[in-house]
């Protein structure tokens, strides 16, 4: 018989004549696929012994299995465990795996994927985005995101994990979409619906550690872990003995999401914690294979890299990973300090000054090799020659909200007018903007850290979280620590669910985001801001300007996070309009429809430049005499 044609090197795949099973178990002599029906009416069980290939892999065709069959792998005639590459765990990581048929009636044949430029990204946690916490419920809300102006949804990790709720970063079944949100086809329907509406879908994946509970990979091979360690403990083995099948596992996983779920890209969690000294880094390998798998579709590959290494963006030929974009914590941190005045722990490395905010617009990273005293080492690498669109900016995300003591959102930590001004910078800067679910309507729901593991592990997680939070000195006291929500309590999860009716009730905030996104998309300068020459100047203790030059077109943004300023004299050339023109206000964060108090008709007077307090005002040049 000819060998069945497999799509991926591991897992259970329906083929002609049954199901082909393949698993890597180099520490063992015998592996059986045990097929069973646990139903009360007709329980049965039978085993198909898999052939030993001689390279650590076991494989075989089981004619009695089919799509929908439940199974485990029995090792050396002893215990049986779920498939490390299971495509679905209907009862969670501790239960049996299910054979899944990947066939699906896709309607997105004309969809060509997404490129980096022009994106406005929306980060979403499926379990809390809606009250139902399912793919189906989230899909119903996609038209509202299109109306807002979002172009791509970034879904937090969905690899299956134990318990009733979780962020997803402790997943243990990398190929199995979490059963809490629906079945695999529900995920596919979500993506198909998004594409029909013109939305791209990115998935956050975690390739730096396995979760602490429900991980059975080590029962199959001790080689999944190597001798190195990272912040989660033992690091995954990407460069030590017998690492090739481990590399294949993760590369196959990335390809799987692109091929079988039609995803438009991946966001790689904590790439700085992936330890690999191979000639070609595992992320370089994954990037190459993902692009091959996408074929003619464009995919967007994004790295979170706390150490701010631009190697993520360099091509593989230059020792890089060949990715498209990186998260930019520097923008978040300086904006957070500017808005809140908070200056503790890692925020202590930022002043939140106008010059920092100008520099983020011009350079992306603020730390490009300077010493970062909080960490006691240098941080970052130069960004010269890198497109601004490579940097993903945000004022909120799951990490920065959820890893604070009480999951408080930014609008509760600052005044609304200053937040509107910084939101203007976020949405009109040349970098790629990202917003976190509910941010667009100032959701009253916190986003807390929640994780439902076994009691012992849950206590350890809570203790570890308290240790982490103690870096913020205002939290390091018993009376404060006692108020912090426990990750394993159901109410912690329930509190974090969005109330989507607040879109209407908080419509002024929603209108701000909708109109800024429209301005970014439709204005001939801001829509191609990544091609502009950006210049900036500090106007005072809290004020600054940005000026955009694109061929013969220009824009000016004045941002002031303090009291109103009257500039006289004005020895700043960037305030001067183009020859023969004057500045006309194009947009203001203080419009009444956004909750503001209005903007004066004339900001440049005979006596001074008036820089409105706690506001952002955008200007365009018009020929003198043609002012509206």
TrEMBL record:
<keyword id="KW-0119">Carbohydrate metabolism</keyword>
<feature type="binding site">
    <location>
        <begin position="398"/>
        <end position="403"/>
    </location>
    <ligand>
        <name>substrate</name>
    </ligand>
</feature>
<comment type="similarity">
    <text>Belongs to the glycosyl hydrolase 13 family.</text>
</comment>
<dbReference type="InterPro" id="IPR013783">
    <property type="entry name" value="Ig-like_fold"/>
</dbReference>
<feature type="binding site">
    <location>
        <begin position="267"/>
        <end position="272"/>
    </location>
    <ligand>
        <name>substrate</name>
    </ligand>
</feature>
<protein>
    <recommendedName>
        <fullName>Malto-oligosyltrehalose trehalohydrolase</fullName>
        <ecNumber>3.2.1.141</ecNumber>
    </recommendedName>
</protein>
<dbReference type="GO" id="GO:0033942">
    <property type="term" value="F:4-alpha-D-(1-&gt;4)-alpha-D-glucanotrehalose trehalohydrolase activity"/>
</dbReference>
<dbReference type="InterPro" id="IPR006047">
    <property type="entry name" value="GH13_cat_dom"/>
</dbReference>
<dbReference type="InterPro" id="IPR044901">
    <property type="entry name" value="Trehalose_TreZ_E-set_sf"/>
</dbReference>
<dbReference type="InterPro" id="IPR012768">
    <property type="entry name" value="Trehalose_TreZ"/>
</dbReference>
<feature type="active site" description="Nucleophile">
    <location>
        <position position="269"/>
    </location>
</feature>
<feature type="site" description="Transition state stabilizer">
    <location>
        <position position="399"/>
    </location>
</feature>
<feature type="active site" description="Proton donor">
    <location>
        <position position="304"/>
    </location>
</feature>
<dbReference type="InterPro" id="IPR017853">
    <property type="entry name" value="GH"/>
</dbReference>
<dbReference type="GO" id="GO:0005992">
    <property type="term" value="P:trehalose biosynthetic process"/>
</dbReference>
<dbReference type="GO" id="GO:0005737">
    <property type="term" value="C:cytoplasm"/>
</dbReference>
<dbReference type="Pfam" id="PF11941">
    <property type="entry name" value="DUF3459"/>
</dbReference>
<comment type="pathway">
    <text>Glycan biosynthesis; trehalose biosynthesis.</text>
</comment>
<dbReference type="Pfam" id="PF00128">
    <property type="entry name" value="Alpha-amylase"/>
</dbReference>
<feature type="domain" description="Glycosyl hydrolase family 13 catalytic">
    <location>
        <begin position="119"/>
        <end position="470"/>
    </location>
</feature>
<feature type="region of interest" description="Disordered">
    <location>
        <begin position="82"/>
        <end position="101"/>
    </location>
</feature>
<dbReference type="InterPro" id="IPR004193">
    <property type="entry name" value="Glyco_hydro_13_N"/>
</dbReference>
<dbReference type="Pfam" id="PF02922">
    <property type="entry name" value="CBM_48"/>
</dbReference>
<dbReference type="InterPro" id="IPR014756">
    <property type="entry name" value="Ig_E-set"/>
</dbReference>
<keyword id="KW-0326">Glycosidase</keyword>
<keyword id="KW-0963">Cytoplasm</keyword>
<keyword id="KW-0378">Hydrolase</keyword>
<dbReference type="InterPro" id="IPR022567">
    <property type="entry name" value="DUF3459"/>
</dbReference>
<feature type="binding site">
    <location>
        <begin position="329"/>
        <end position="333"/>
    </location>
    <ligand>
        <name>substrate</name>
    </ligand>
</feature>
